[in-house]
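Sat 14:20. Reprocessing the chain from the morning session after the first attempt stalled halfway. Input below, unchanged.
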Amino acid sequence: MKPNRQKVHEKYNGHCAYCGIVIAIKDMQVDHLIPQRNYVWQLKNNFKIPPFLMHLTFSDVNHIDNLMPTCRSCNGFKSTFDLDLFRSEVSEQINRLRRSKPTFRLAERFGLIECRPKEIVFYFETLQGE
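Finished this time. Tokens:
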């Protein structure tokens, strides 16, 4: 069954579930929090299933609870990562930029960029429990 784009868009009031930017419905992409590619395997093995998705069954891959409104860059970067791996990969970006981009290191030395450790909390996680 094809997901209802309007319902997915409204899920977080038009914001990307991960970075929190406002996205127009025409620009929104739909991400599967538990990736389609690994869905049945993850459920069978109870592997990194977020507590709020424990109610899903093998046929619920397109259940609204598993669908996230995303911006193009978050969806492309997340790809088939589970939530923990996505968080880890986002956290690693500063180190990767420092290693591979001389312009990044230059901007940092001149104080144009200030990097500080920060726990990665996805937008949808800030809304849970409200």
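The helical segments are 5-10, 39-44, 72-78, 83-91, 93-100, 102-109, 123-127.
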